[in-house]
Amino acid sequence: MKKYLLLFLVFSSFAFSQMPNIAEVWLNKSQPYTGTIGGDKEPIKVKIKISEQNRKNDQEYFVSGYSLVENNYSKFEGKLKITQYKDGKKRSTVFGEYELAEEPNGKHSGILKGKFIYTFIWDRKTEKIGQQYIEFIGDWTNYDGTLHFKTNWKNQ
User: Fold this and answer.
1) C-alpha distances out from residue 44 to 64, 114, 146, Å
2) Among 3, 7, 69, 73, which one is least packed by beta carbons within 10 Å?
3) Domain range list for the chain
4) Segment 91-150, tens digit of pLDDT
5) CA-to-CA distance for 117 and 100, rounded, in angstroms?
C-alpha cells in the first residue's frame, strides 16, 4: 500500500508541476533581436518590450513590442508557446511557436509566425543561465496576403 501511495504522489507531482516563469528571457536584456526578412535579406530588428507568462497556461507567454524594417516601424502583440523542452547535462533546449500581429497600418504590416529554439547552459554553481541563444525562424505575411517573406532573427 505504501508503494502505491508513493507512486501516486510522484506521478501527481508531475501532473501538477508548473513551468518556471522565463518571461524575462524573451526581453533579451532590453536588446533587439536582429536578422533578415525576404529573399534580398533585408535587415530586420524585433524588440520585445513586454513579456508575461499566461496565468492559465504556463507554456504560453504574451508579448508586445515592435519590428523595424528599413523605415517601417510597426508595433505588435502576440504570443510565444512552448511545445517541447529537452533537459541536457550541459545544454538544455526549449522549442516552440510564435505568432506576432503587427498593428494594421498599411501594406507593410502583417503577421510574423513561425518556430523558435531557445538553447541555454545552466550554471549549477551560480544557479543562473550562463549562455543563451534564441532563434526565431518563420514567415511574415501582410494582412491582404499579397506579400510573403521568410524571416530569421536571433539574439545578439
Assistant:
1) 16, 15, 19
2) 3
3) 21-154
4) 999 999 999 999 998 778 999 999 999 999 987 788 777 789 999 999 999 999 999 999
5) 16
